[in-house]
Amino acid sequence: MDPEAIFRGPREMPGCRNSTTTIQPAGSLDYHEADWTGAVVVVLSGLLRLECRSGESASFDEGAVLFLTGLPLRCLTNPGLDPLVLRTIRRDPTTSSPTSPTGPPHGRRTMITIADPARIAGLAETLAGLHTGPMLVLPNAWDAASAQVVERAGFPVVATASAAITAMLGHPDGEGAPWEEMFAANARIAAAVSVPVTMDAEAGYGMDAGDLVRRLLGIGVVGCNLEDSDHMGGGLRDAQVQAAWLADVRAAATAAGVPLVVNARVDVFLPTGAVPEGDRVAEAVRRGRLYRDAGADCVYPIGVSDPAVLAQLVAGIGGPINGNTGPQLPLPVLRAMGVARVSYGPRFYRAALAGFADAIKDLS
Questions:
Q1: In the chain, where are the structural domains located?
Q2: Each residue of 224-267: pLDDT tens digit?
Q3: Which has fewest Cβ within 10 Å: 3, 69, 144, 359?
Q4: How far apart are CA 299 and CA 320, in angstroms?
């Protein structure tokens, strides 16, 4: 379906009657056009999925405003983990109102726009600037509470970890979770903190670059990890194809007026990359350079634990590099090597679960 009817707009409209509907997680509401004719629907909280009679669907997050008249819908569903709250706004025929019931107020029609463009652009600029100073340390978060812990500890950025979030949601890593759930989880994180948030967006969930950027900015995140693993076909995506897609991501962000910070992950050193060990360094350098030329702000060769290998990548790729700590790569060594940022993936999520298990083991 074509969700061109969505836009960001006011939640209260003069001369209108308002009603509120709540759909519980996994619940649905059958669509009867007569009930929605001339109405504006605002997503106050949660995640809304519109399902068409044809089987197609589209999802909308908090703040979206929709006009459902004339759409071939079957039902409205809540695919998220929290209650979905909708406000239905209908024109009150007993009063006059400048708002037209048959189209968006003021003629604004766009798929997804940014609620506060100046703030989002400022956060993105802050995140970009942190890649050129002292090494940026990112203890990854997985929900709103852990993100607030990171912010309270004084870290200037919150980075999310897809492996932790998918596990929390009960799905396998590697785009095993529905993208709607992943964006909803990251939206809650972005809303819970005041610092920039960068989302681990895996391989982009099969979205075209423009749609991905609109959705990222729409939930308030200003950076993203984008990996070159092919979760559908296995192995790695063709490097030239990945670079062209990253260039499209950069162009879409530029068009939106936000310097979205792209951390291009190179999965050559992962077993799933299926690159012979002797070829990995050269292939990682080749891919890293392509991705940098395409507009990536940082390159992330995940899975490197050997300082000598990482040093070759820092020198060969050029520009900011994302590394990981390990027995041979503590933070001081990474700083001395010129690594720009360090992330931890699901490490602290797993440590939290281990701590929980240890805390309750003697209760029974």
A1: 7-107, 117-355
A2: 999 999 998 889 999 999 999 999 999 999 999 999 999 999 99
A3: 359
A4: 7
Residues 280 and 268: beta-carbon distance below 8 Å: yes
Cα distances (Å, whole numbers) of residue 89 to 8, 17, 64, 144: 15, 6, 13, 30
Q: pLDDT digits over 84-101, tens only?
A: 998 877 654 444 333 333
The CATH class of the 7-107 domain is mainly beta
**Per-residue pLDDT at 287:** 98
Q: What are the structure tokens assigned to 265, written together?
A: 């992950």
Query: If you compute the radius of gyration of the chain from its CA atoms, what whole number of angstroms results?
Result: 22
* Helix segments in the chain, DSSP class H: 33-36, 117-129, 144-152, 162-169, 179-192, 209-218, 239-256, 280-293, 307-317, 331-337, 347-360
What span, in angstroms and rounded, lies between the C-alpha atoms of 300 and 336? 17
CATH class of 117-355: alpha beta
**CA dist 26 to 38, 46, 100, Å?**
27, 12, 33
The two tokens of residue 10 are: 């006011």
Beta bridge partners of 158: 197
Query: What local confidence, expressed as pLDDT, does residue 16 receive?
Result: 55
pLDDT tens per residue across span 288-304: 999 999 999 999 999 99
